[in-house]
Design a protein that fits this description.
The protein has 289 residues and is of the alpha/beta class. 39% of the residues lie in helices and 19% in strands. The protein has an 8-stranded parallel beta sheet with strand order 7-4-3-12-11-10-9-8.
């Protein structure tokens, strides 16, 4: 299996797990809140933060945008979607901050125009959201950028994933196992699919989690996930559709510490007698004939 290089980080088997804090729309349209989330992710030891980018009138129909929906931005879904969308100026600020903190940032782009928009910032990679896995034109457009791609597979069948990989190819590709429910219940996480995806596709496989708690993400690493993505929030009780399925900064830091310790503990799989065991062996070993 080939590893994938994301800037100066190699992601794949035998490498430390690449940890991504998904800010997504948890910034609630507030650039100052977005900056606080970036700083929290960097302070926690994350390798990257991820945003979402949409051209609202392309991604959503007029009927959907006109639908009544109460939010801090107004009374329609249109008000909400536009209220949560950052423009060029905000992304300039995000880019400047991330560079100063030496943390990578990228986005999941839901339409071709959004890919072109984010291209201005020379991202290290792109994530393709689960909802976009069957949009083959969008997959092709991402591939034209020549950047590494991270494909999320929530709400998808194996046959749909097969077809997506036929379109994308397998070079510079990471697949994420995911369950697209916010928050997801434990009985629907199906973490045992991770080694099966590794075997089926022979590409690095990661995990995008939306569940409450941390230990399941740690279990994903034990099962072979080379990338872990969790939503980050300053407070799970904040307004916003994704906040309850997110992790607060102290939780992200705790998860990363546990992942690093687990990676050391997993070892290399070669059975050996350690020098530290020799005195114990001499004291306790019994030999029978």
């Amino acid at each position: 299996m080939k590893s994938v290089k994301i800037r100066d980080r190699v992601v794949g088997p035998g490498q430390p797990a690449f940890v991504v804090a998904e800010i997504g729309i948890n910034h609630n349209g507030d650039i100052d809140l977005a900056k606080k989330l970036v700083i929290a992710a960097a302070s926690s030891g994350c390798d990257a933060v991820k945003f979402q980018k949409r051209t609202v009138d392309v991604v959503y129909s007029k009927v959907e945008l006109d639908r009544p929906r109460e939010s801090p931005f107004g009374t329609t879904n249109r008000n909400l979607k536009y209220g949560l969308e950052f423009g060029y100026g905000q992304y300039v600020e995000i880019d400047r901050l991330c560079r100063s903190l030496d943390i990578m940032w990228y986005a999941s782009c839901w339409d071709e125009g959004s890919v072109e928009f984010i291209e201005q910032f020379d991202p290290p990679c792109y994530k393709i959201a689960s909802a976009c896995l069957t949009d083959h034109n969008l997959l092709r457009h991402h591939r034209k950028t020549g950047r590494p791609l991270i494909l999320s597979t929530g709400m998808s069948t194996l046959e749909q994933i097969d077809r997506a990989l036929e379109v994308l190819g397998r070079e510079d590709l990471i697949i994420l196992h995911c369950t697209s429910v916010y928050p997801a219940s434990l009985d629907e996480l199906n973490l045992r699919i991770i080694p099966k995806l590794i075997e089926r596709y022979d590409v690095p496989v990661g995990y995008s989690g939306h569940e409450v708690g941390l230990y399941t993400s740690l279990a994903a690493v034990v099962l072979g996930a080379c990338l872990v993505e969790r939503h980050i929030t300053l407070n799970r009780a904040m307004w916003g559709t994704d906040q309850a399925a997110s992790v607060e900064p102290h939780g992200i830091a705790k998860l990363i510490k546990a992942i690093r310790a687990t990676e050391v503990a997993l070892g290399d799989g070669v059975k050996r007698l350690y020098e530290s065991e020799v005195p114990v062996m001499k004291k306790l070993r019994r030999v029978g004939l």
